[in-house]
From TrEMBL:
<feature type="domain" description="S-Me-THD-like C-terminal">
    <location>
        <begin position="167"/>
        <end position="356"/>
    </location>
</feature>
<dbReference type="InterPro" id="IPR010318">
    <property type="entry name" value="S-Me-THD_N"/>
</dbReference>
<dbReference type="InterPro" id="IPR027479">
    <property type="entry name" value="S-Me-THD_N_sf"/>
</dbReference>
<dbReference type="InterPro" id="IPR048350">
    <property type="entry name" value="S-Me-THD-like_C"/>
</dbReference>
<protein>
    <recommendedName>
        <fullName>Hydantoinase</fullName>
    </recommendedName>
</protein>
<dbReference type="InterPro" id="IPR024071">
    <property type="entry name" value="S-Me-THD_C_sf"/>
</dbReference>
<dbReference type="Pfam" id="PF06032">
    <property type="entry name" value="S-Me-THD_N"/>
</dbReference>
<dbReference type="Pfam" id="PF20906">
    <property type="entry name" value="S-Me-THD_C"/>
</dbReference>
<feature type="domain" description="S-Me-THD N-terminal">
    <location>
        <begin position="8"/>
        <end position="164"/>
    </location>
</feature>
Length: 358
């Protein structure tokens, strides 16, 4: 069943997207501002079930590409993503009839609401990741042989470009190179697909789940409770660690924010240390002795240990108290195809993927 999203829902949506975004997907506050302005001016957005879309309808994901750290300083106006969508529609000679959220990330889970409000198009209840991943080909659509191109890319200066590539990995390489030249971040319309393709490939119910997670966070905070326990109960999650950040190494290279964070344990984790490695998103959580506790494609989600708010990789700083929760990924990611696409081996780690809780 579909439902209506108003500007008042965006606080919960931004929080839920930031939590599922595993530290990436962009600053949720920026995306919330974009969406709130669009909904205030153009009205609410309809979120519809995948099965409500006609098989021959053109469905298009819209999103940001680049280093989340860049977006903190270079706010998109909203015109960039509309230009990218218009360029794609012009090339295809067909108008989009529904929009798709490509990933559950802070900025990328709210940008589609802004585009939906401005265009009047419905947003499908689902996405391509069920979390956030750093590279463009790391979506369920790739596992179903849906091409990322034609892809339209637009920046804040008015530049735009259109790609046609031999496969989705090449799309990532070429679009990333252009994104770096565009200043490290760009807005994208890509993976154009039919309604029939969308129904077989999308991870269903993500937009509803994002909202529910955000509502849980807000409800817990209203009762002066930390939301971690309630979220773990609802998501079959695992409490990985609670501690204070004692060291952060971060560099923006090749269009990614890469680095490691060292956390020193408190409370039940007193005397222990955890290392978390990230590339835009948290990828690996391991003990100081090298034991992997949670690994991509499963989710490593961070909350401020005091306030219970989601923490993104660009917000990590010395002295911050964080609570880390592991969440099982969608079953599609735990298949051989999913692990090949976004498992530890792809990122250069030498351990085999071991499912959380398995």
């Amino acid at each position: 069943m579909g439902y209506t999203v108003t500007a008042e829902d965006l606080d919960a949506i931004a929080l839920g997207g930031a939590f599922l975004g595993t530290g990436g997907g962009g600053d949720p506050y920026i995306g919330k501002l974009m969406a709130r302005n669009a909904l205030a001016e153009h009205g609410p957005v309809q979120v519809i079930d995948a099965d409500e879309v006609a098989d021959d309808a053109l469905c298009v994901p819209v999103f940001m590409m680049g280093a989340p750290t860049v977006m903190v300083e270079k706010l998109p106006s909203g015109e960039e993503i509309l230009k990218a969508l218009a360029e794609l529609e012009r090339f295809l000679g067909q108008k989009a009839q529904a929009l798709i959220c490509v990933e559950a990330g802070g900025l990328n889970s709210t940008i589609p609401y802004a585009v939906a409000a401005i265009t009047g198009l419905p947003l499908i209840d689902g996405d391509g990741m069920g979390r956030a991943f750093p590279e463009l080909q790391m979506v369920s659509f790739t596992m179903h042989d849906i091409a990322a191109t034609p892809l339209a890319l637009a920046d804040d200066k008015g530049n735009s470009t259109l790609f046609s590539t031999i496969d989705n990995a090449w799309t990532e390489r070429l679009a990333r190179a252009v994104t770096v030249q565009m200043g490290g971040a760009a807005l994208v319309a890509a993976y154009p697909m039919s309604g029939a393709q969308m129904k077989t490939s999308i991870l269903r119910g993500t937009m509803s789940l994002i909202r529910e997670i955000g509502q849980t966070i807000l409800a817990s905070r209203a009762k002066s409770e930390h939301p971690g326990p309630a979220l773990r109960k609802n998501l079959n999650g695992t409490h990985l660690f609670t501690g204070r950040v004692v060291d952060v190494e971060r560099a923006t290279t090749g269009g990614f924010a890469r680095g490691t964070v060292k956390v020193r344990g408190v409370d039940d984790f007193q005397g222990q240390e955890m290392i978390v490695r990230f590339q835009n998103e948290f990828l690996i959580a391991e003990t100081a002795g090298g034991e992997v506790l949670c690994s991509t494609p499963d989710l490593i989600c961070a909350l401020d240990a005091d306030m219970g708010m989601p923490v993104t990789t660009e917000q990590l700083r010395y002295g911050l108290m964080i609570e880390l929760t592991g969440v099982p990924s969608d079953p599609q990611w735990r298949t051989p195809a999913g692990i090949a696409l976004a498992g530890p081996g792809y990122f250069g780690y030498d351990h085999e993927f071991r499912p959380l809780g398995g």
